[in-house]
Amino acid sequence: MLPEHARTHNRALVLQTLYTEGAQSRADVARETGLTRVTVSDLVAALIAEGLVVELGQREDARPGKPATLIDVDREAFHIIGVDLSEHEVFRGAVVDLDGQILDRDEIARDGATGEAAVVLVERLVAKLLDRTTTPVLGIGIGSPGVVDPHGVVRSAPNLGWSDIALQERIATRFALPVHVANDANVGVLAEHGSSHHDDLLLIKIGHGVGAGLIIGGRPVIGGGFAAGEIGHVVVGTDGGPRCACGKDGCLEAWLAVPRLTAQLDELDELDERDEHHDGAASARDDILREAGRRLGIVLAPVVGALNLSEVVLSGPAELLDGPLHEATVDTLRTRTMAEHNRDLRLRMTEQAQDIVLRGAAVMVLSGQLGVS
Amino acid sequence: MLPEHARTHNRALVLQTLYTEGAQSRADVARETGLTRVTVSDLVAALIAEGLVVELGQREDARPGKPATLIDVDREAFHIIGVDLSEHEVFRGAVVDLDGQILDRDEIARDGATGEAAVVLVERLVAKLLDRTTTPVLGIGIGSPGVVDPHGVVRSAPNLGWSDIALQERIATRFALPVHVANDANVGVLAEHGSSHHDDLLLIKIGHGVGAGLIIGGRPVIGGGFAAGEIGHVVVGTDGGPRCACGKDGCLEAWLAVPRLTAQLDELDELDERDEHHDGAASARDDILREAGRRLGIVLAPVVGALNLSEVVLSGPAELLDGPLHEATVDTLRTRTMAEHNRDLRLRMTEQAQDIVLRGAAVMVLSGQLGVS
């Protein structure tokens, strides 16, 4: 390990220890990290100079000798801006503190904007969010639909009409702040990972499209072409299915995207209204959701089997996902894989609700700027 | 990073540099690794004492000053024992040198042995292999079918009648040597990774059963229940399929395992012999192989999509896999995923032929004992 790499690594280690364990003395940090007291004191001095770490006063304890000075990450020193471009109608943003709490929100209607007009909307939203905080900003995190490369270039986001848009560089230049851009589901899974006990985790994000975010061995998976998680256009089963916008029949998105599910349920409601003797609308509704869940299970079974995943998380409208759809996905996964290997598999709804991308964007900035997760 | 961790890391860095770059001076190693000359000299002295590194004499060059002494990994200092338990009829083993070359081989017929009798056969094979080398042995690597935990306990290998067999501990105690045991396909993918340019790699191993080995971001994936790659009993498609030994219909193994394919082809040959006017046997043969390949593609499409894999490798009998089966898998993968994301996907036959598990077992020992890959 190169000396400068060792220093960066040790700095992140000190920050991570303070971040997760809270206020403690320099000696505590040395014990916890295995670094020498001299190294810790040196790193802490630099972190105090940067304003990231603060002295809290002396510990009141009964230990003999000079009482130790407590230090902690200054959780109020910086804010983070999180932006979620994954919704069809609106770009949403938030001011997030270093503990991941959302302090303030704003949004901007997309009104069908694409291409350059959509980039301008992102800039306007970021400007509005920056106006809402007087605290220094650690960085800006953005979750975008589509394929995003490690330099934050949106290689392709058809919904927004984006192709090779260097969003990260553009926002960084405009606001002179560190910016991190990644795919929305890949960002979302970072938020979910924080509240999970597992180092292998799959997030399925169901909205206007269907995408996945994946963490394996504690590390995000981005894929050879930066398109990991792009499962919306994988064909489900061998019995056809609805025609998809991409031209294929029976893509996962054609079964499962929110507009598609909503349209099917609306059709059912209309049928119900026209014919007051029309029975079993509730069970017909359940059938539609159950079939969508079954289709999700069919696509996930090989992924769960190949990775031997312990945890799969669903994100999207709870009124659609959390019920027959969820149950059918679990049932299908169990009957289509080797049960004894996947006994511990847990499929659950996200705990982040609609804020999953905003919170994940903040985690991405914390980890990118401080090495803290 | 703890000081002793740093030392282990730096030692592996020095070994890795010598291992891949070949003979060079201590100063070259320092430049290459970014470590100080003092650190390198200190580590090299310890490695020479261990017999892992050797001085080769002085460089004949025109540079001014005292000519530098060349050092290298002593590639003849140690041998590795590799063992492959994945075949149905026979346990195979090899003596492998530090460069991964197979120097000698041996095997032992299984004769249907299971349980304790099968463990005794493994011991006997290892003893025979150790007899074939007078060079010190760095360690023993074993690829076993079934689910193997990180301590080398075979949790479950139905073919061998093994359940919670502490094979690693047992062989290590018997021979007083370091032993590493892992799943055969997970071992195999290590060998394949050596000859690949990709850090994401999926190996599909087709034999008596069907299993997969997976490397993501350069690291082996083992799964929450240590059963990553166990895709043999994932159900393919939604149109039924042959009854599998596990009781389900249409498992990947029921379509693709070698005994199943061979039986189908034999049936065709019999038909052909009985009726000399029976036409199109060759095209019927192709149809069987093509359908098997299509089924493999159906199961792999969601995995390739979710991971955005660049490379999938097939291992097994080339006369079955390398032709219509391979072609149909590629075609199916392309038509069932988003083509533009998986444009660079390459599906190829292994370059290790039948030795993939033996070579992978040697890589596992190299990496486990020396930190070298």
Describe the protein's architecture and organization.
The structure is a homodimer of 373-residue chains. With 373 residues, the first copy, chain A, is α/β, with parallel strands linked by helices. Chain A folds into three domains: 71 residues, Arc Repressor Mutant, subunit A (Orthogonal Bundle), CATH 1.10.10.10; 128 residues, Nucleotidyltransferase, domain 5; 155 residues, ATPase, nucleotide binding domain (Nucleotidyltransferase, domain 5, 2-Layer Sandwich), CATH 3.30.420. Helices cover 42% and strands 22% of the residues of chain A. In chain A, helix 1 crosses helix 2, helix 1 packs across helix 3 and helix 9 packs across helix 11. The longest helix of chain A is centred in the C-terminal third of the chain and has 27 residues. The relative contact order of chain A is 0.12. At the A-B interface, helix 1, strand 13 and helix 9 of A face helix 1, strand 13 and helix 9 of B. Chains A, B: Pfam families: MarR_2 (PF12802), ROK (PF00480). Chains A, B: Keywords: Kinase, Transferase. Chains A, B: One of its GO terms (molecular function) is kinase activity. Chains A, B: This is Sugar kinase.
Beta-strand proportion of chain A:
15-25%
SSE order of chain A in H/E notation?
HEHHEEEEEHEEEEHEHEEEHHHEHHEH
Biggest beta sheet attributes of chain A = 5 strands, mixed
Largest interface, counted by CB within 8 Å of the partner chain's CB:
A-B, 63 and 62 residues
Overall helicity of chain A: 40-55%
- What is the fold-level CATH name, i.e. the topology of the largest domain in chain A? Nucleotidyltransferase, domain 5
Low confidence ranges of chain A:
none
**Shape of chain A, please?**
globular
Give the C-alpha Rg of chain A: 23 Å
Question: Per CATH, which architecture of the largest domain in chain A?
Answer: 2-Layer Sandwich
Mean pLDDT of chain A: 92
Structural class given helices, strands, pairing of chain A? alpha/beta
Give the oligomeric state.
homodimer
- Spatial order of strands in the largest sheet of chain A: 6-5-4-7-11
- Our measurement of the CA-to-CA distance between the termini of chain A, rounded to an integer number of angstroms, reads 22 Å
Work out the count of structural domains of chain A: 3
CATH superfamily of the largest domain in chain A: ATPase, nucleotide binding domain
CATH class of the largest domain in chain A: Alpha Beta
Counted by DSSP, the helix tally of chain A is: 12
Instruction: Tell me the total number of β-strands of chain A.
Output: 16
GO molecular function (chains A, B): DNA-binding transcription factor activity; kinase activity
Domain HTH marR-type (chains A, B): 10-63
Keywords (chains A, B): Kinase, Transferase
Organism (chains A, B): Agromyces badenianii
